[in-house]
Amino acid sequence: MEICLANQLWLAVQLLEGLLSEYLDLQSWWQERLTALAMRLTAARQVGDRSDEARCLNNIGYTHARRREYKQALVCYEQCLKIRYELDERKEIGMTLNNIGSVYLEQDEHEHALKLYMQSLNIALEISDKETEAEALNNIGSVYYEQGMYEKSLLYYEQCLPIRQEVGNRIAEGATLNNIAEIYRLQGNAAKALVNYKKALIIAQEMGNREGEAITQWNIGLTYRDLKNIAKTEEYISQAVQIAEQIDYPLLEEWRKGLAQLRAMRQGTQET
Measured in Å, how far apart are the chain's first and last C-alpha atoms? Predict the structure, then answer.
């Protein structure tokens, strides 16, 4: 990509980034993805491709969000949204509204996030965009989850799941299964939680989704902890930490502390 950029082979830069993009995301190689996207953004601006410029800004914002760099993410999303409104790209506007909402949700601005998700959902329904509809439904469920309204949250997750299965978005399907499982876990239904978590884990492993695999392993571990099965808890938590170390997951240090506490507790139980 660097060679192509230096030789002003703009279309080749765009093609190469497109080929790399999903793989870098699945491997959680976010700095490498930011580097590739920056080169594609340069190419898009050189050829005057406003639509592709917006795409790059959206994906740069998304990658910053994955790294918990929310201020940078929001700047990129807002720049992207402005271009998409200028181009009247309705589907893409809905996608970006979802993304902006997720930044606000991560910062506990629930009402602001919900407003953006509802706008996205309305656009998706107007243009029959199933994928964005599912994303909005999932995200609305997440707002209610954060507010402790678990039954309402589950209602939206369960509307989202069959749509994601219908459109074949396996990674997103796994995320929603994780969300549904978490509701069951918090409601004390460990059996239903494990069924959904283990479905999500299979999907993450099949798709090579390293972050999704780590999160699901961690959540399964928490469910076994609820069941007082310390051996199983340590098995899954330690696997989650191992993957988190490989991908430099942002919650790595927190997870390491959790694993250390678990092992200390288990050792104390064995000594007793």
Answer: 60
Q: Which residue has the tokens 């283990």?
A: 198
Buried b (16+ CB within 10 A) or exposed e, 232-248: bbbebbebbbebbeebe
180 in Cβ contact with 150 (< 8 Å): no
**What are the structural domain ranges in the chain?**
182-272
CATH class of the domain at 182-272: mainly alpha
How big is the chain, counted in residues? Answer: 272
Alpha helix ranges (H) inside the chain: 2-6, 10-26, 30-47, 50-66, 70-87, 90-106, 110-127, 130-146, 150-167, 170-186, 190-207, 210-226, 230-247, 252-271
Distance CA(26)–CA(22), nearest Å, equals 6
Tens-level pLDDT at each residue, the chain (272 residues):
999 999 999 999 999 999 998 889 888 899 999 999 999 999 999 999 999 999 999 999 999 998 899 999 999 999 999 999 999 999 999 999 999 999 999 999 999 999 999 999 999 999 999 999 999 999 999 999 999 999 999 999 999 999 999 999 999 999 999 999 999 999 999 999 999 999 999 999 999 999 999 999 999 999 999 999 999 999 999 999 999 999 888 899 999 999 999 999 877 765 44
Residue 172: name the closest of 136, 198, 147, 146 by CA.
Answer: 136
Residue type, 204: A
Q: Which amino acid is at 122?
A: N
Fill in the amino acid letter for 22: E
Count of beta carbons in the 10 Å neighbourhood of residue 46: 12
**Cα(71)–Cα(94) distance, rounded to whole angstroms?**
20
Shortest CA distance to 243 belongs to which of 206, 213, 199, 207?
A: 213
